[in-house]
Amino acid sequence: MGRLLSMDMENREGDGMNPLRRARYFQGFVVLFLAILWAFPAGAAEDKAPKFPGEITIGQTRCLLNGFGLRKKLIVDVYYGALYVTEKSSDAKAVIEADKAKGIVMHFVYKEVEASKLVETWKEGFEKTAPTPTPALKDRINTFMGYFTESIKAGEEIRLLYEPGVGTRVVVKGQEKGIVPGSDFMKALWGIFLGEKPASEGLKKGMLGQS
């Protein structure tokens, strides 16, 4: 009986997990972590941030590099995003609302992002920035998402270039896909990057020059 009581007391000590079980638990965690790293090897992406030009021309307007940041998904680096504006600003709302030339350049560093994943990500973003779109805006959002029919590989870019009175020019891997008209669409799109619920806080801060 004394032996049984002693064993019971030992099992009740600490957090209820004996050293052997704790070691096995930790070992399992390490194995899982290494499996994730194996699935997303560092060599599958470009290791350094791209050198974004200090300025670009959108239509006839010169736009300056406002800042850039990294979009991560869990522990994976997906792309660097750069924001171009006519006047530098750290005010996200002002940048979104301004009906002026502006651009976003997405330079991908992950080995390959499938088209379906791109569309899914855009859809999730628009659900936050335009949860109840008008029928006309919804049609333009669908038109925009229809431009992404091919996967994007490391080193390739997506460019979103807005011109007042013209719309948002969409360039994928150097090929112009089309122009989506309307400042309402522009604001919904820019909100994905700079809104109150952005796709990435780190990317947002980088684009606004806050990091």
TrEMBL record:
State the name under which the record lists this protein. Answer: Chalcone isomerase domain-containing protein
Chalcone isomerase domain mapped to chain residues: 50-209
Give the molecular function GO annotations. intramolecular lyase activity
Which Gene3D superfamilies does this one have?
3.50.70.10
* Pfam families for this protein: Chalcone_3
UniProt superkingdom: Bacteria
